[in-house]
Amino acid sequence: MGAEHYPPPWFSVAPMMEWTDNHYRTLARLISKKAWLYSEMLAAETIVYQTGNLDRFLAYGPEQHPIVLQIGGNNLENLAKATQLATPYGYDEINFNCGCPSPRVAGHGCFGVRLMLDPKFVAEAMCVIAANTNVPVSVKCRIGLDDHDSYNELCDFIYKVSSQSPTRHFIIHSRKALLNGISPADNRRIPPLKYEYYYALLRDFPDLRFTINGGINSIDEVNAARMEGAHGVMLGRAAYSNPWQTLGLVDSAVYGAPLRSISRRQVLEQYQVYGDSVVRMYGLKPHIRDVVKPLLGLFHAEPRNVVWKRKVDAALLRCTTIKSILEETLGEIPDRVLDAPLTEVPSGSTDTFIKAKSLLPPPYTVSEEELL
C-alpha cells in the first residue's frame, strides 16, 4: 500500500537479529495495530543465494503492515539484486544497516557499523537500493565508532549520505560502537548515551527526518522524547522482553486511539492459531521452540511468570503443537492476569531529553572540502 497509507512512524520496534522474526512480528501486531515493525537484519547475500527459498526469509502476513525490511551488506551488486528480489513482497520501506557492532557483521563481514567510516559507499549503496524499489529508503546508524565519535564526524556522515543519495530518514542509535572485541550486549550498555547528538541533528539538518533509538524503555519515555521534538522513537529490547506494557500502550498513548479492549488470553488464542499453522512449514523449520520464543515476555513481572516459563521449557521437550503447550502450562498463570485488560501504568524518566537539549554541541558547518 505504501507508507503514506499508515500512521506516521512515531513509534517503531527495532530490527534485532534472531529476535524480530516473523513470529515476533505476528505477536506484536496482535497487541499493537499502529507500531511500525522491522524485520531482523537480512544480509543481501542471504537473499541473493536463497532465491529458491525466499518465502522463508521474506514472507509475512499482510496484517504486519506497516513493516520495514532491513538489509545489510557491502557489495553493491548484491544489494541491488537483494532489493529487486525483496520488492515483490511489498515492504513499506527498505532500511540499510550501518549500526550493527556484531563481530560477525562489523568484523569479518566488514559491514554494519564499520560502514560509517565510508559514507561515500553508503551513499552509493542507498542510490542502488532506491533505484531498485518504489518505497522510501532509510539508514540506521550509531553516533560513531571507536575514536571516530565526534559530533562533527557524525554530521559529516549524515551530510555526505543525504546529499549524495535519496536518503531522507536516519535512525540514530545514540551510543557509539566499540569494535574492540566486546559483545553486542556490552555495546548496548558500555558506551554512554548521548541524546544531545540526536537533538543537535534535528537542529542542523531540518530537512531530514530522524528517529531516536537506544536506552528508551517505556511509553512515558517515548512521549517525553517526542515532546522535545523527536520525529520518531524506536524501542528494541523493551518491546521484546515486555511487549504487553510497551506495545500494548502504543496505540492509545502515542497515537491517541482508544485503549484496546483485549486480554492476554485473547492474544494467545489468536497466536496459537498462527503458530500451529507455521510449525515445520519449511521442513524442520520453524521449530516449535522458535514459534514459542516471542511469548516468553508476555507475562513480564507478573505472578508465577518464572514458574510458567520453566514449565514451558519442559513442555517443549515433548509437545508438538502450540495449543498443547498452552493447555499444559497456562494453568500456572492466574486468571486475573490472563483476563486483565490493558491499563496505562506511568513509568520511566521523562526529564532525560530536556537535559540532553541543554547539552547540545556547537552547530555543524559544512567545510569547503565537503561542499566541493
Automatic annotation (TrEMBL):
The keyword Iron does not apply. Gene3D superfamilies: 1.20.120.1460, Aldolase class I. Its cofactor is FMN. CDD domains: DUS_like_FMN (cd02801). The active site is at residue 100. Its EC number is 1.3.1.-. FMN binds at residues 15-17, 70, 140, 173, 213-215, 236-237. Residues 13-314 form the DUS-like FMN-binding domain. One of its GO terms (molecular function) is flavin adenine dinucleotide binding. Keywords: Flavoprotein, FMN, NADP, Nucleotide-binding, Oxidoreductase, RNA-binding, tRNA processing, tRNA-binding. It is an enzyme of class 1 (oxidoreductase). The keyword Flavoprotein applies. InterPro entries: Aldolase_TIM, DUS-like_FMN-bd, DUS_fam, DusA. Belongs to the dus family. Catalyzes the synthesis of dihydrouridine, a modified base found in the D-loop of most tRNAs. NCBIfam families: PRK11815.1. This is tRNA-dihydrouridine synthase. It comes from Solanum pinnatisectum (tansyleaf nightshade).
